[in-house]
Amino acid sequence: MILPVSTIFNRSITLYMTFRRTHPLFMLILFGMLFFFSCDRGRFFEDNKVIKKGVWDRNEKVRFEIAIPDTISRYSFFLNVRNDLNYPYSNLYLFILTTHPDGALSKDTLECELADYSGKWFGKGIGSVKFNRFLFRKGIRFRTAGLYIFELEQAMRVKELTGIRDIGLRVEKEK
Length: 175
Description:
By secondary structure, the chain is of the alpha+beta class. Helix content is 19%, strand content 46%.
């Protein structure tokens, strides 16, 4: 049974008015969630992986799998880094290994600056943890649709890198 738009609208208003009076905290949370999730329209993919105990072993690769559906759209890639104030360096070097759907491999190196020369940390955060997002590639158009695998590894020339809490990959579809 298809209801007229006016009936659906009236029922929605009635439900809203009832909940507003009986559950004001619920309504506040609901509208907050709607606002929070609607502000991130450009995101195509985002995943952040926790580094166990904040110690990133040189041999440990952080893996992300992304299904790219088309070869026409352009994408921008970002790396998310959360570090604590015990991180001993002002920058972070990463190797990024990409496996294409046809099995081809490509490898890149990226430097992420986490602090200035005086030791002041960049990024957002309260307390002892800072969050930074770094542009890795902009305007990328894929030749082949399919599953792409991105593997990140720390390239800091130490066996165990302390102070990195999370590492992540964000992909935005450009308009």
